[in-house]
């Protein structure tokens, strides 16, 4: 006997009904819709450390970016079928097209995504197929429902034309961008399983040239509106639909998946042919009671007599193949959501997980979780709110004729009672509970590439935790473990795995001994790990190989090489340091552009500082930094001539950064050479004011010129021979964000004030925009203090006519007294 169970992917009601049906049927073989070459991985389901949500990952070893995922949650019927098999010693096999074919097929014959359940929901008086399935199947688990669903699907398929004039499939030739995120370009699925019937999106090839329906992250308000409409019980208005569709989010609308005609395309026919062939093989092998678990849309094609195999063989003949490797990887609830672009996704994976795991008083327990979430965000929610929310949800369910309150009822109860109609508060509940960010886990001995195994070992050793929620970690680089964590995160970033993102921590620190990271693990990182495995078998060797490869490419600038060297030290890539230093020296010797050399100097200086903090030997870098500074000092005086305003301001920023770098390094020889170069620039008359004024300011701050000299240079810059624009540029360069200088140096303030008051009207109007930009960069407090200083500043004090003459005799007495006090010889 063979029984076909047409299920909804990721449906808790289907999962519960299937588990009960399998107990009644007692099969001796179970076939599950999934890649047939994943059979060896079924045994891992029984491991104690296997925790859904997880996914089967298939990828092409020579081109890891070509990959596919088959996700499973604890409430997925397929997962429950696998659990039944391993718990009862029943052989479990996958019966769909192997991953070797899925990853090789370039199928342009798939039709637009449609939902066969939409027609059934419409006939039942529902405007949303999701709500109809939830009310009829999910809320009332019943093993008899499978036969009824198969019969309904058969009736729908009778009127669905088969696409038979499509060309034969060709091998995939699509190229993939290795830096693009995995799983973001799923081909349009043929027959929808998003509302619960079938999923070609269990096959998610990740070639990068066919993006899925985009989700506009810069339109949060419209997306929130679409999410609200998806759970609303009110009918859609035309204006609602137009606003959401204009943002490219029409796939989130309740009826979106039901649009278009029902068509059985050729890809679906090939999949069903392979399933029948697998069934024939199992029956021929001696199986007596076979249970077939597949999407409900496929069920009519698998029930009854299988018929001759020849037509199926002809349909499958010539399918392209490629090498494929398969493994289990962790997955998240948010990636099971339809809002993520997953065609077989559900709108509320967190809610479905709750329904499946909490069988006693699920509504009350759910609303208690909601109260916990709101309380965690410091919102006032009491036990009375929970009681009233349960009462309202049950009342709404009774009014609507439902045996149990569903998501729409509990959401309306939360909105009304706990949130007081505040949609922002409700959004917290939707994000953290209705969707959720639960991250699964797989056993350590799961087949994987060596690089992934090394990463798992490092994570375990360093006591880090892979989490789907964002978590901030402060690292103290004076501690050995935190230094190793920093090395790990920097190596991963270098390999394109952005698990950690540097951020600003709550603990303020002006030193270099602290780092703050924002950690969040994404399932697609598993593909990127496989992609990065081409560089090496461990994180260190892979990062070293990649950074050296990047540095050896043609056209790499000195600045990029300096940044790469800084990254190498941050990641403790000692094997790459010598090669990067040699490449940097060679590039600096051939690069005659002073701006490139200036851009590289700050990075080298930071690298020297990091070496001190992290205990890295950076003596070789000192030679490179010295050589770089010599070339800068030789070329900078010639590079500052003939510049327009934009070029001068850009160069001024680089000079500021280089000056800070030289000062930070605190090397006497380097500082002397640098300040001597600035002095040569400050003494020239053919230099743009933005650079000349800044050179004077930096020399004054370094006490290489005194206040009198700087005042003389200011007077020369404001002399009659210069244009108003040149004068304003010099002042901008001289002040450059240092507003307090005018507050404390009243003489300087008076000179600038006198110059401004003496300007003719036309020159004042021409100069005003430049000065406005200069003074606009000051802090508001600095501007107020400057204004107060101008009010308080009177005319310059006149010299006293009758100055007291110096009495040498009295001076000698004072000097002898001071010498006696200090113990000096008289």
From TrEMBL:
InterPro entries: DUF5682, LolB. Residues 202-211 have a biased composition (Basic and acidic residues). Residues 159-221 are annotated as: Disordered. Residues 162-175 have a biased composition (Polar residues). Pfam families: DUF5682. This is Uncharacterized protein. It comes from Nocardia coubleae.
């Amino acid at each position: 006997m063979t029984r076909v169970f047409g299920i909804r992917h990721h449906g808790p009601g289907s999962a519960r009904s299937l588990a009960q049906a399998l107990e009644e049927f007692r099969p001796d073989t179970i076939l599950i819709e999934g890649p047939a070459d994943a059979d060896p991985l079924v045994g891992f389901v029984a491991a104690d450390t296997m925790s859904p949500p997880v996914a089967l990952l298939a990828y092409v070893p020579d081109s890891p970016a070509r990959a596919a995922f088959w996700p499973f949650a604890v409430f997925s019927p397929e997962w429950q079928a696998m659990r039944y098999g391993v718990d009862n010693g029943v052989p479990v096999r996958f019966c769909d097209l192997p991953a070797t074919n899925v990853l090789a097929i370039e199928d342009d014959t798939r039709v637009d995504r449609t939902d066969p359940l939409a027609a059934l929901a419409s006939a039942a008086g529902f405007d949303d197929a999701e709500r109809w399935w939830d009310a009829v199947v999910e809320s009332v688990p019943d093993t008899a429902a499978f036969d009824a669903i198969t019969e309904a699907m058969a009736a729908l398929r009778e009127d669905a034309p088969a696409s038979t004039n499509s060309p034969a499939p060709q091998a995939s030739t699509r190229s993939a961008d290795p830096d693009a995120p995995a799983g973001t370009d799923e081909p349009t699925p043929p027959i929808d399983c998003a509302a619960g019937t079938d999923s070609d999106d269990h096959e998610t090839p990740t070639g990068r040239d066919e993006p899925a329906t985009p989700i506009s992250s810069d339109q949060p308000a419209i997306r929130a509106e679409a999410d609200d409409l998806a759970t609303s019980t009110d009918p859609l208005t035309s204006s609602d639909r137009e606003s959401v569709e204009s943002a490219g989010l029409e796939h989130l609308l309740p009826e979106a998946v039901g649009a278009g005609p029902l068509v059985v395309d050729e890809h679906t026919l090939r999949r069903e042919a392979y399933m029948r062939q697998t069934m024939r093989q199992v029956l021929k092998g001696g199986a007596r009671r076979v249970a077939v678990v597949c999407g409900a849309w496929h069920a009519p094609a698998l029930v009854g007599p299988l018929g001759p195999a020849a037509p199926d063989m002809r349909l499958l003949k010539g399918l392209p193949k490629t090498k494929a490797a398969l493994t289990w990887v962790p997955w998240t609830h948010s990636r099971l959501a339809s809002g993520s672009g997953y065609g077989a996704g559900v709108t509320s994976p967190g809610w479905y997980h709750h329904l499946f795991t909490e069988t006693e008083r699920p509504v009350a327990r759910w609303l208690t979780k909601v109260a916990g979430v709101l309380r965690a965000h410091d919102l006032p929610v009491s036990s009375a709110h929970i009681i009233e929310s349960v009462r309202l949800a049950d009342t709404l369910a009774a009014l609507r004729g439902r045996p149990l309150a569903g998501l729409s009822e509990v959401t309306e109860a939360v909105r009304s009672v706990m949130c007081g109609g505040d949609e922002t508060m409700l959004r917290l509940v939707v994000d953290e509970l209705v969707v959720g960010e639960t991250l699964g886990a797989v056993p350590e001995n799961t087949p994987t590439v060596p690089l992934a195994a090394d990463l798992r070992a490092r994570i375990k050793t360093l006591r880090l935790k892979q989490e789907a929620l964002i978590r901030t970690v402060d690292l103290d680089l004076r501690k050995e473990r935190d230094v190793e964590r920093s090395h790990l995160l920097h190596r991963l970033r270098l390999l394109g795995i952005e698990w950690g993102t540097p951020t600003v921590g709550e603990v303020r620190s002006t030193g270099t001994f602290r780092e703050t990271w924002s950690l969040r693990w994404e399932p697609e990182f598993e593909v990127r790990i496989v992609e990065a495995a081409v560089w090496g078998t461990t994180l260190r060797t892979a990062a070293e190989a990649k950074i050296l490869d990047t540095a050896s490419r043609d056209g790499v600038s000195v600045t990029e090489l300096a940044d790469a060297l800084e990254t190498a030290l941050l990641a403790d890539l000692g094997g790459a340091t010598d090669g990067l230093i040699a490449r940097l020296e060679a590039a600096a010797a051939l690069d005659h552009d002073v701006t490139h050399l200036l851009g590289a100097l700050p990075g080298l200086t930071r690298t020297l500082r990091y070496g001190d903090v992290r205990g890295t030997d950076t003596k070789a870098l000192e030679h490179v930094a010295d050589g770089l500074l010599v070339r800068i000092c030789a070329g900078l005086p010639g590079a500052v001539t003939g510049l327009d305003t934009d070029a001068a301001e850009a160069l001024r920023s680089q000079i500021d950064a280089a000056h800070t770098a030289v000062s930070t390094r605190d090397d006497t020889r380097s500082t002397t050479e640098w300040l001597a170069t600035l002095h040569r620039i400050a003494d020239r008359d053919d230099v743009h004011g933005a650079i000349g004024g800044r050179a004077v300011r930096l020399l004054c701050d370094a006490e290489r010129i005194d206040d009198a000299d700087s005042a003389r240079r200011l007077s020369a810059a404001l002399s009659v021979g210069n244009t108003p624009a040149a004068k304003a540029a010099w002042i901008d360069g001289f002040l450059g964000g240092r507003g307090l200088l005018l507050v404390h140096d009243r003489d300087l303030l008076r000179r600038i004030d006198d110059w401004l008051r003496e300007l003719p009207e036309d020159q004042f109007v021409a100069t005003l925009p430049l000065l406005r930009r200069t003074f606009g960069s000051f802090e508001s407090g600095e501007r107020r203090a400057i204004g107060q200083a101008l009010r308080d500043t009177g005319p310059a004090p006149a010299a006293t006519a009758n100055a007291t003459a110096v009495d040498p005799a009295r001076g000698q007495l004072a000097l002898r007294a001071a010498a006696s006090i200090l113990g000096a010889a008289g």
